[in-house]
TrEMBL record:
It comes from the Eukaryota. InterPro entries: AAA+_ATPase, ABC_transporter-like_ATP-bd, P-loop_NTPase. This is CCR4-NOT regulatory complex component. PROSITE patterns: ABC_TRANSPORTER_2. SUPFAM superfamilies: P-loop containing nucleoside triphosphate hydrolases. SMART domains: AAA.
Length: 277
């Protein structure tokens, strides 16, 4: 069996076309077969990093390598990125039957994988996609996206509308994949429920930087604080990280300590809010 790919990022700085900085000096070395959770507040840079890793955005040369290869330069076979634009594909809102869709992505070449995914994601083969719920549609999409045996899976929070059991089964399937064949996963998520035993590595991003990363066991979990007693240890750790990040970042523009946002809202017609003095 060929070894699983490592994911290496070396001093990656990235600017968007408008000139704003997206990522700064990112360095990572995620080992073969790892399952990394990408953690960070909204706007931290997770999607930007995943898209660069997938080769969908061009990274500066010699900054990203997957199994030793620059994914943008070669269009690396086996790298699957499942993100928001993929799930917005209008095809999956038309009157099309599930077996047809699965066939269109190569289901007949991988019948065992197809049947396993259909079972794990609890997909009904008689569904037509114009007449299913959002979560049901998402399960069909995941079946389609995971059907070909990828070697690197980059997931940008696409499990939000799965029910708890479907999400659990899906994540267990991914875990078994990394344990039974040569593959590596990076998963950006805000939903940490029942996830503590899943990752091998954590990557903490804030303001376009990787602040910390490492093996799951190397992070010190803070003591539980008031109001968060029901949290898992992972949830407690991430809560602390996000609080620190918010403190470092400070208020967003337009929401200064003097209550500028309130002034503005009152000025445009009043939302029934009392101005805070
Ligand atoms: N095309 C773009 N041009 C300029 N800035 C952008 C562009 N796309 C994203 N940004 C900015 O880059 C920052 C990082 O965005 P990104 O989508 O990577 O964050 P994220 O960590 O995935 O957030 P979320 O958790 O909300 O999905 C944000 O401040 C965003 O406004």
């Amino acid at each position: 069996m060929a070894p699983a790919p490592s994911i290496t990022v070396n001093n990656l700085t990235f600017a968007f076309p408008d000139g704003s900085t997206g990522l700064r000096n990112i360095g990572l070395d995620l080992p073969p077969g790892s399952r990394s959770l990408l953690i960070g507040a909204n706007g931290a840079g997770k999607t930007t990093l995943l898209r660069l890793l997938s080769g969908k955005r061009m990274a500066p040369s010699n900054t990203v390598s997957i199994a030793g290869i620059d994914p943008f330069a070669t269009g690396l076979e086996g790298v699957t990125y499942l993100g928001l634009e993929w799930v917005l594909n209008p095809i999956v809102r038309t009157d099309i039957a599930v077996p047809e869709l699965l066939k269109s992505v190569g289901g007949d070449h991988y019948p065992e994988r197809r049947d396993e995914l259909v079972r794990i994601l609890d997909v009904d083969l008689s569904w037509h996609l114009h007449a299913v719920s959002d979560g049901e549609r998402r399960r069909v999409q995941l079946c389609m996206g995971l059907l070909r045996p990828w070697t690197v899976l980059l997931l940008d929070e696409i499990t939000v509308d799965l029910d708890l059991l479907s999400r659990h089964n899906f994540l267990q399937f991914l875990k078994r994949e990394t344990e039974s064949r040569s593959c590596t996963i990076v998963y950006a998520t805000h939903i940490l429920d029942n996830l503590a035993a899943w990752p091998t590595h954590l990557v903490h991003m804030s303001l376009g930087r990787v602040k910390k990363w490492g093996e799951m066991g190397t992070f010190e979990v803070p003591p539980t604080d008031g109001g968060a007693e029901g949290n898992s240890r992972l949830g407690q750790l991430v809560l602390q990280w996000l609080r620190e990040d918010l403190e470092e970042r400070g208020p967003r523009r337009g929401q200064g300590a003097e209550g500028k946002a309130y002034h503005h809202m009152q000025g445009i017609g009043g939302y029934g809010l009392e101005e805070k003095k």
